[in-house]
Amino acid sequence: MREHAEPDTSAARRDAPPGAAMAGAAAGGGPTAARAGAEPATSHAGAEPATGHAGGKPATSHAATAAGAAAPEECDLLVIGSGAGGLAAAVTAAFHGLRVIVVEKEPVFGGATAWSGGWMWVPRNPLARRAGIEEDPEAPRTYLRHELGNRYDAARVEAFLENGPRMVAFFEANTALQFEAGNRICDIHGATPGAGTGGRSVIAAPYDARRLGALLPRLRRPMRETTLLGLGIQAGPDLAAFMNATRSARAAWHVARRVGRHLYDLARHGRATQLVNGSALVARLARSAADLGVEIRVSSPARSLIVEDGAVRGAVIGTPDGERAIRARRGVVLASGGFPHEVARRRELFPNTPTGHEHWSVAVPSATGDGLRLGESAGGAVDRTLASAAAWCPVSLVPWPDGTVGHFPHIIERAKPGIVAVRRDGRRFVNEADGYYDVVAALLRATPPGEEAAAWLVCTRAFQRRYGLGVSKPAPVPVAPWIRAGYIREGRTVAELAAACGIDPAGLAATLAEYNRHARRGEDPEFGRGSTPYNRYGGDASVTPNPCVAPIETGPFYAVKVVPGSFGTFAGLKADAEARVLDGAGRPIPGLYAAGSDMASVMGGYYPAGGINLGPAMTFGFIAGRHAAGEAVAGVAATGLAEAGMAAADAVADGASPETAGGGRASPGAAGPAPPVAAAPARGEAGRAVRGAVA
User: Fold this and answer.
1) Basic and acidic residues compositional bias: what residue ranges (predicted)?
2) Which residues contact residue 236 at a Cβ distance below 8 angstroms, ignoring those fewer than 6 apart?
3) What is the DSSP letter of 184?
4) Which of 372, 389, 394, 368 is closest to 381 using CA atoms?
């Protein structure tokens, strides 16, 4: 029977007292010295199939000999998965002196993060405060208490809110990861007490992928459906310029420069190098990891965990030469992206999915529940009590000319004036300008048992030419190919459109007549489009009096079909405020951490704001890395050396040198003075040498 694991008794803390800062590594050597432009430590294990754990649930190995006769490799921390959560943990732990290996089963790294919009919800972040937005610390707590209700996990919410700003400050001060503010982005439910109207969002600053050097070929390319010929477009001024390229000379010049550079990159590098959104986040984290000596191994699926005396000591990894054990002195971080493409678990946990196939996620196909199965094999438990198992979003199925079918997430156009969503009966069922999660939740509620959960976004050709519709881009990009492919249905009249879509014609005609009667005055009494700051932020400010409402009157009319999809999953392994995986009795499993979608969402299965996936992923990855390195975690009870370590970490994040912030770092398992620490270069240069690298 496992004894109750106190914070300082896990395998991850065995070699050092709580709060002791660390540098170097135990036997086997420490990370390479950080330097600007250091050659990245990336390896390619070979053509290992990217299918995860063959045969379903992986076995748990109880000895290093489980991987055969080869001597096991050793490191301090092993991270399974290479998205935001995993890389945040790796970089944080390496900065604090641990030798870290990241394994990724795909031949490319970046996970679902590389396909994401990249926004992170981090209330009271340093960028907002530098912009003069000083928020009452109780405001985000109040918002989450009301939004999450009885699923409000006070300990984990506190850890997230306390460590989120510290996470941003740490990466800004010490790594290649720099941020831009989203200070105008509103929380989704503006009527909820504590809702923010800005200052809670950050995104990675754009990044020149050429700075990745040898890492670049292994970086996952952006999602095909959300790019322009592979070129990512960032929400905000960049997107606004692309949408106004035919209306503004300044916008046209911006677009010409971006596209011209992209065409050069395609000819020279075969891919985009102007990285934005989630691609920029992953690239900056990978550059930071390489600068700190972290090794990222692709085509290296984790097969099983090594568990000894109830503690996780490493994992067995697939290689071209067979399975090999990697022992991890301070533990393993599970960050493999959740289970959006695991059919069996979808069938169990998703509504309206009787076979498990009635769901279309925009997450990478390799996110098939590996981390959850590994965690369960070591005694962890998946939280099945969340309000929702997935981060819903409406998607349309994109028929590409090569015969593949893509999944497009409908985020932007739903809030623009002149579009409605209807079911097959022709009736609206939701405020289309609300959050993507809310739209799908409403669709699922409105769908009778046994009926397909689907809706049609209905607009005019003029709307599509102005704002785009799904994967079809606005003018001057041609729309005809998408009509010929059947992705967009067209009708000269409302009746023709209804017939083309299989919508009840009388129901659609009645819905549009009633909607238009109010829309001419900028009103939507039925669902209240434009009634919240979030709605209006997504609308078109040039349309008055309501930026989200305009009539749908003059044909031809267009429609695209949308179905339930997701950005990823919420139902993950139960974990505590220090990112430690919990067993069935609620006790931490020594040496096992979870981050990203492998951890049960701190939001309880709700979606209160954009960025509530990546914000917690980065924050709990940061927490896991600190805890594995023996550093204290803000918002979690700590005494003695742990308190000193937290104070020193805060001082370093605020710009103090590691020496003046609380003493040098102790080498794991060793006494005596800390090794020399490099001085910090000037702030503001992305990709600069990382402060605090062990000489």
Assistant:
1) 1-16
2) 182
3) T
4) 372
- For residue 217, the Cα-to-chain-centroid distance in whole angstroms is 21
- The two tokens of residue 13 are 């803390």
Tokens of residue 180, six digits: 């831009």
The strand pair at 100-103 and 295-298 is best described as: parallel
Assign 521 to helix, strand or coil: coil
Neighbouring CB atoms inside 10 A of 8's CB total 17
Cα–Cα distance, 251 to 414 (Å, whole number): 23
Residues 6+ apart with CB under 8 A from 641: 17, 18, 19, 20
Strand partners, 316: 304, 325
**What six digits make up the tokens of 356?**
């498990």
The closest alpha carbon to 314, from 324, 326, 297, belongs to: 326
Residue 33: Cβ within 10 Å count: 16
Phi, psi at residue 452, to the nearest 5°?
-65, 130
CB-CB contact of 276 with 236 (8 Å):
no
β-strand pairing of 455-460 with 420-422: antiparallel
From residue 115, alpha-carbon distances to 222, 301, 364, 408, 429 in Å are 5, 20, 7, 11, 29
pTM for this entry = 0.84
pLDDT tens digits, 333-370: 999 999 999 999 999 999 989 999 999 999 999 999 99
Place of tokens 């065409």: 263
Give, for 160, the enclosing helix (H) or strand (E). helix 154-174
Q: pLDDT tens for residues 628-683? A: 999 988 888 653 334 444 455 455 444 443 333 433 333 333 322 222 222 223 32
Hey, how many other C-beta atoms are within 10 angstroms of the C-beta on 7? 19
> How many whole angstroms separate alpha carbon 60 and alpha carbon 380?
12
Give CA separation, 112 vs 129, 283, 566, in Å: 29, 13, 11
| Cα distance between residue 174 and residue 450, in whole Å | 54
Check: CB of residue 554 under 8 Å from CB of residue 457: no
594 Cβ contact partners less than 8 Å away, ≥ 6 residues apart: 333, 334, 335, 371, 375, 380, 572, 573, 575, 579, 581, 620, 624
